[in-house]
Amino acid sequence: MSTEALHHLVVVYDIQGSAGLSNPEKIVARNSLDECCTAALETAAIPASQVRVKDLGDGAMLQFGAEIAKSRVLGAWLGAFHSRLRRAYERAERPVQVRLAVHAGELHPSLNEYTGVALDFTARLADAPAAKRVLGATPSAPLAVIVSEVIYDQVVRHRGGSLEPSAFSRIKLQVKETDATAWLYLPGWARVPMPQDTGTAEDDAVGAIPRTTADRVRDGGRQQDITVSGGNVGVIGEATVNGPFNVGGGPR
Question: Does residue 154 lie within any of the structural domains?
Answer without folding.
Answer: yes
